[in-house]
Design a protein that fits this description.
This protein is α+β, with helices and mostly antiparallel strands. The chain is about 25% helix and about 25% strand. Strand 7 and strand 8 (about 125-135) form a beta hairpin. Helix 11 (about 540-550) packs parallel to helix 12 (about 570-600). It comes from Astyanax mexicanus (Blind cave fish).
Amino acid sequence: MYQVVPGGAGGTITDGVPIKKINKESRPLVGAGVLGLVLVIAAVTAWCYYIASLRKADLLKTELLDLNKDGFLIRNQAGGIVFKMAFRSGTLDLDSCSKEGVILRCSRSNAGRVNFFIMTVKPKETVMCYRVRWEELESDRPVEHAMAYNESHWYGGAETAVQNWPVAISGQQAPKPFVTSDIYSNRHDFGGILERYWLSSNATAIKINDSVPFHLGWNDTEKTMYFQARYQDSPYKPLPGMPPYAELSYRVCVGPDVTSIHKVMVRRYFPKPNKVPLEAMFRYPIWSTWALHKKDINEEKLLSYAGNIRKHGFNCSHIELDDRYTSGYGEFEFDPVKFPNASGMFHKLKADGFLVSLWTHPFVNYDSANFGLCLEKDLFVMEPTGQLPALVRWWNGIGGILDFTNPEARNWFTSHLRALRSKYGISSFKLDAGETNYLPWQFRTKAHLPDPSTFTRRYTEMAIPFNERAELRSGYGSQNISCFFRLIDRDSVWGYELGLKSIIPTVLTISILGYQFILPDMIGGNAYPNRTYGNGKLPDRELYIRWLELSAFMPSMQFSIPPWEYDAEVVSIAQRFTALHETLVAPRVLELAGEVLNTGDPIIRPLWWIATGDETAYRVDSQFLIGDDLMVAPVLEPGKQERDIYLPAGHWRSYKGERYENKEPMHLTDYPVDLDEIAYFLWIQ
């Protein structure tokens, strides 16, 4: 019954506890027990892993955002996914992640050490924002994230040559520098008015931080936009003494609707004007010499132009004397051949009630009398060694470009403008150019420029002393300059590529970017050879009339080709629409302009501004609102005297007196609009 069993390691246990012999019948029970024990241990282990995974999943969530190693997504309050961002340049090591309050932080990626965090901010009860940052700590490789856009409409970014509303992505584009450019000359680049901001119909907005060496690309097959930070093969430069390690940082905010989230973004992150330009700029047309006379302007033609404005009974904010009134580019004295009695000319214009502004630019051509002086005083942007000026080619030749990061260059430029104002009574200036494509790929400035578009900002600051009537065509973080921003030159054509159809999408885009005092360029376009519909010397008559009608409902009107170049009927139509602008449009615009100082809200608004729940409103690119109560629907097609009109839900009265009280959005098909009319509707309280 009992037995002595051998001890371990060859010994014998002489005083052990007697062990009962296991018979054959008991062995299955023992096996089952062992198996059960193993299963219990496995279950406990699985439970521990499950609990750990739940804790990790909880760790990788912050409010409405879910993070994984390949990217993150954001949901709205109802649980629907409204934003997706993928990490293209690396994946996170989730074991390196931790959560401290509202900050979710990770310290490693699959390629090395990083500084990654997502910080949750709740600026309003109905709005959630996330600050996202991925900074490389060991490598100069680019950081790239990819934003999916296939489930919503997006707006913002930049002025473009072919402007679509909403943004239309076509083809594939590797990330390229997101910097200002002259899109009249470089039609595939980003435009002169540009901000790192996009807004979605999903009530989501994203703003890239100013410190990022930002490049933008896209892929219409993948339905993604690529946000990339890099210093290699790029005009961006790291701060002095810092390694060229890329940092991609941005803010994403989600709200209840697109209008509400845009208001939050503008109030928190955009500079705003500190004053409104002069009332006359809004109320009366500006008359430019450019499209009519180009460079062939002189004293006699200017006086004749002014005389005809009065002769035909038009009001005038001011006359804009454009290109080639000086002997050379970079000079500030009137050409004595073209303007033999400049002082007398300005005296007569003033006596006749005309103010005059002058065209100017940042270039000093190599054959200008001022080139040597600027070179001697180190006023130019220099090539990288700092030994020679960086000569640049622009549309009027080759020369140096003034370095507006240099206080001496700024003072030299401004002093000449002030001298012109003092000597001739010049009212203000049209500051042309300013885009970064007129800088060399590599250059040196007095103050370090990590972001080349900061040069655009510095140039726009030159308008501040003259901003009551000043005009700019480029802008980057320049919303607070408080002057009018002009669309890049338009061709005298009907289409979306710098033509009549491009005006509404472009105005809506730069309005969303925070620029509200908008000059939609010259009525009828610039009448450039080979870029004019019909190939005549003048813009097509019908095109001119439709352009005039649209311009009458913009914040400001600008003529160059005058209506009397056509016939008496065109003059009559122009008189009627300038009067309508003065009495109906300008008072509304001026009221809204005052509100811009506090809110930054657009003056010219998209239809979705008052119809956030209507999918159709997000796609309308040929109508717009002035404020919330005046809806405009111009005819933009040749040969048409009717158009389809989308009317948001509400109580509306047409310009013909018709009343529409629709609880749902309404489509007016083939609504008749004669050649001398523009369709508009007023909200009835």
